């Protein structure tokens, strides 16, 4: 306590000093651009402080508390999950997903946008401010090297080489690829009320999630905003994209294998990220014979050569899919938007987003959502393995003996994170605990999105 109090006093002293120094500087020299002051991060790894993520408390908002002195937006996990969803419109039902893919996706996107777009970009997509309909976040994404940050709840996504987004400059055509040609991406996902109801049921006991209840009803919508650290100078179609602040890795080129195992050495800072991709998943019984889910993705600015524009609505659909085309080429269960040309989509032309792994597809990766997570991982191994391109009906697990999480990876990853934390907390000896932490860190040196097992 004594240490805490004296350090608080020191911080106050430092602020006073900084203010008078700033006043002096303003009198003597023209103001130079300064990095945003963010103060000292207060780290809260999961349950350590006991005020969240325990069986008797709410879920944590993020991996860390807001930095001292932070005045900007703060993410609060939307976790007031409803006991039962109230009836709502389903405007996408007006369209046939197989023949009117663009209109179907636009209707679902408009539904997601309603009440979420605000005049302040930083305050947009904050469920607490949406007066049209409720949206919810899945818990336990605040864990490990890529865990949720405190400003917008962003989690670290797959790293992309610039050539996956746009024609690479000559300096990024070399082998080995200079590390500055790779850019980190971050994302935050939301579920509508039917989705929130199921998250609430699975997690109704905060100390004992029940994946057997993970079956989403008709009309569930999950949507995810993906932001990149890549600059407009290298990805011109990002011009005009909404920008958020994120408390993310201060090195935007950092590879997963380069993130230190010691949390105190993981350097984060407030950086600007730009909207690149929007993912949408809709539970729709019209495609129950394949997977039960429609997945679609949008790219900012319409991708390379797309029309100019700005703001949240300046996005174009890349494509739509309702199955994994187990019979192979020609594809019948992905329809790409002919007006958009991306440097890559998914395996053999199946749908995937700009930041996603080209050897996979939306539904291929999401079909692996199960609990406990199996040993196979999310990515086809070896590449092209038909096991990852089946049409697994909603409710059937990827591996025998597991519970399917109905194509939700936030449920399967969240429960895996929770179980991992329990293993660490309840390790019988300090040595066993250290060993478990080391094992987890080792596992995290490669992202599951690149083929590493989750657990
Ligand atoms: C290689 C794996 C992989 C691929 C490919 C992939 N995703 Fe995901 N997706 C994830 C993981 C892991 C999560 C959960 C963690 C998170 O939100 O980052 C997720 C989360 C989501 C969510 C939030 C709800 C949920 O299911 O957890 C949506 C919606 C989503 N993805 C849609 C898509 C769409 C649409 C595509 C294709 C354009 C796609 N994903 C491709 C791995 C993948």
Structural account:
The chain has one domain. With 455 residues, the chain is an alpha+beta fold. The model is unreliable at 1-47 (pLDDT under 50). It has helices at residues 2-28, 101-113, 193-202, 362-366, 409-425, 430-443; strands at residues 42-43, 64-65, 155-156, 160-161, 182-183, 185-191, 221-228, 243-249, 268-283, 293-300, 315-321, 334-336, 370-371, 403-404. α5 packs antiparallel against α6 (430-443). The protein has six helices and 14 strands. The protein binds heme C (HEC). Heme C binds at residues 155, 187, 189, 222-224, 279, 281, 295, 297, 351-353, 356-357, 360, 362, 365-366, 378-379, 408-410, 413, 449.
Can I get a quick summary?
By secondary structure, this protein is α+β, with helices and mostly antiparallel strands. The protein is 19% helix and 15% strand. The protein contains six helices and 14 strands.
Provide keyphrases for this structure.
455 residues, alpha+beta, 8-stranded antiparallel beta sheet, disordered N terminus, binds heme C
Outline the fold blueprint:
Layout: H1 2-28, E1 42-43, E2 64-65, H2 101-113, E3 155-156, E4 160-161, E5 182-183, E6 185-191, H3 193-202, E7 221-228, E8 243-249, E9 268-283, E10 293-300, E11 315-321, E12 334-336, H4 362-366, E13 370-371, E14 403-404, H5 409-425, H6 430-443
Helix pairs in contact: 5-6
The structure holds heme C (HEC).
Q: What ligands can be seen in this structure?
A: heme C
Give the uncertain stretches in residue-range form.
1-47
Total count of strands: 14
Mean residue pLDDT: 89
């Amino acid at each position: 306590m004594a240490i805490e109090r004296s350090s608080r006093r020191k911080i106050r002293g430092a602020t006073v000093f900084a203010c008078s120094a700033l006043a002096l500087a303003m009198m003597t020299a023209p103001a130079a651009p300064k990095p945003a002051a963010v103060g000292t991060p207060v780290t809260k790894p999961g349950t350590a402080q006991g005020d969240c993520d325990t069986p008797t408390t709410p879920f944590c908002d993020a991996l860390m508390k807001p930095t001292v002195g932070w005045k900007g937006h703060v993410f609060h996990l939307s976790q007031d999950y409803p006991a039962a969803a109230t009836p709502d419109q389903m405007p996408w039902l007006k369209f046939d997903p197989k023949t009117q893919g663009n209109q179907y996706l636009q209707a679902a996107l408009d539904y997601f946008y309603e009440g979420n777009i605000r005049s302040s970009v930083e305050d947009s997509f904050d469920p607490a401010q949406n007066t049209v309909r409720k949206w919810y976040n899945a818990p336990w994404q605040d864990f490990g090297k890529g865990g949720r940050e405190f400003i917008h709840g962003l989690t670290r996504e797959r790293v992309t080489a610039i050539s996956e987004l746009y024609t690479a400059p000559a300096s990024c055509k070399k082998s080995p690829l200079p590390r500055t040609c790779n850019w980190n991406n971050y994302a935050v996902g939301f579920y509508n009320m039917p989705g929130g109801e199921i998250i609430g049921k699975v997690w109704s006991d905060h100390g004992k999630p029940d994946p057997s209840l993970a079956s989403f009803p008709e009309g569930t919508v999950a949507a995810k905003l993906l932001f990149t650290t890549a600059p407009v100078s290298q990805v011109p179609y990002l011009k005009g994209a909404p920008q958020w602040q994120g408390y993310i890795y201060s090195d935007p080129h950092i590879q997963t294998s380069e993130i230190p195992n010691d949390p105190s050495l993981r350097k984060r800072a407030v950086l600007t990220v730009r909207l690149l991709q929007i993912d949408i998943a809709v539970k729709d019984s019209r495609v129950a014979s394949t997977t039960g889910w429609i997945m679609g993705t949008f790219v900012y600015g319409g991708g390379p050569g797309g029309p100019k524009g700005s703001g949240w609505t300046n996005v174009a659909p890349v494509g739509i899919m309702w199955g994994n085309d187990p019979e192979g080429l020609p594809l019948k269960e992905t329809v790409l938007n002919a007006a958009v040309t991306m440097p890559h989509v998914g395996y053999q032309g199946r749908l995937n987003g700009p930041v996603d792994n080209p050897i996979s597809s939306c539904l291929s990766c999401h079909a692996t959502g199960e609990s406990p997570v199996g040993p196979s991982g999310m990515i086809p191994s070896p590449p092209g393995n038909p096991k990852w391109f089946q049409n697994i009906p909603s409710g059937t697990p990827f591996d025998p003996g597991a519970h399917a999480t109905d194509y939700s990876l936030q449920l399967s990853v969240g429960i895996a994170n929770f179980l991992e934390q329990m293993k660490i907390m309840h390790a019988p000896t300090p040595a066993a605990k250290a060993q478990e932490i080391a094992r987890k860190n080792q596992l995290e040196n490669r992202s599951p999105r690149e083929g590493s097992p989750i657990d």
